[in-house]
Amino acid sequence: xxxxxxxxxxxxxxxxxxxxxxxxxxxxxxxxxxxxxxxxxxxxxxxxxxxxxxxxxxxxxxxxxxxxxxxxxxxxxxxxxxxxxxxxxxxxxxxxxxxxxxxxxxxxxxxxxxxxxxxxxxxxxxxxxxxxxxxxxxxxxxxxxxxxxxxxxxxxxxxxxxxxxxxxxxxxxxxxxxxxxxxxxxxxxxxxxxxxxxxxxxxxxxxxxxxxxxxxxxxxxxxxxxxxxxxxxx
Amino acid sequence: xxxxxxxxxxxxxxxxxxxxxxxxxxxxxxxxxxxxxxxxxxxxxxxxxxxxxxxxxxxxxxxxxxxxxxxxxxxxxxxxxxxxxxxxxxxxxxxxxxxxxxxxxxxxxxxxxxxxxxxxxxxxxxxxxxxxxxxxxxxxxxxxxxxxxxxxxxxxxxxxxxxxxxxxxxxxxxxxxxxxxxxxxxxxxxxxxxxxxxxxxxxxxxxxxxxxxxxxxxxxxxxxxxxxxxxxxx
Lengths: 234, 234
Description:
The structure is a homodimer of 234-residue chains.
Chain A: E1 4-9, H1 14-27, E2 31-35, H2 39-45, H3 52-57, E3 59-61, H4 64-67, E4 73-77, E5 89-91, H5 92-101, E6 106-110, H6 119-122, E7 127-130, H7 142-154, H8 172-189, H9 198-209, H10 215-233
Parallel strand pairs in A: 1-2, 1-6, 2-3, 4-6, 4-7, 5-7
Helix pairs in contact in A: 1-2, 1-7, 8-9, 8-10
């Protein structure tokens, strides 16, 4: 995603500029453009934690057209409220996929905190993209919107399908020794009012199986039971 | 996802508490718990834009164990640096999937801005989850981390696969009338030094086809060309 410009138009709050830069740094994007930012905000933002490199390289433009120079795909972000949209509008999941597939430089636009993208800004866009959110509270904070959009761009669809790495489970031998030690403990401690039956042995084995122990934890439990047994017999 | 508690342990910055509440409001989560928050920060956060309801209902607990009461799944978030983890550690894409599949109340834990989750906090967790990020800058801002995790929980895997709704394209008849009008404009305006040939007609048709006009825009262009023709002939 080296080719992606993140463009903030008219940002007012230094914390938001800093937060946008930090999310870019977290997710591996480096090209930040500011269109007509509030000067004081931009200056203050430069001290944002951990994103100095991105803020130092950030470029400032008087107009959006200047910032978009060289881009062959322009995508606007909007909550999609209160206006008739003239561009195609996609949910983030789909919009991000279209951006990833684009060959060439692309720009992702975020409007000002208060007003979002203007109608003039929107007319530069090939399509618009919205973060799915509650109808009663559509509009995200600017820094959080940048983070969520960039995350969707770098998330790995297959990472959700990979199941956890297989762990080394307790062996059947460990389970049997565990069952024997636990039975002895139960007998000696008086938990069993009678001596163990085939049925109680089976229930004990199933009880241990359901613990779903891994190999290492089985070793720890074997040690614990040995110690308890030793003490009970003392 | 009504059953999910968002638990912040030891948060220090009112802006982050407010940002967490706002992301919860955006993505439809309502149960915010604060463990041992910095009191001043909690008080100040209550004025966060648009998330008053969540902050008013937020509950405060002296210990993490108190906050986790009733939860049958506890998931910690961590950048996974600097420590040996004793719990399974999954990327967000997978971890969120496991949370969605869980039957019963679940808690999602976020540590303090400076130190993250303590080893004691981690020992309460069934598994840990990390947001994929650049190794050189792993740690996200707290408010942004909450937003990204909640977004992953509510994102719709199939939304990325749905392609844009089919649009109503320009008809072949419209394309032909467009071509005829454009040819007349080119002849009268002197763009063509000779009269149109079968080859130039073909190229003109292909040129128009590549515009990939929708039905409505074709009507607009037909009107524009009619007006230009009228003026050229005047």
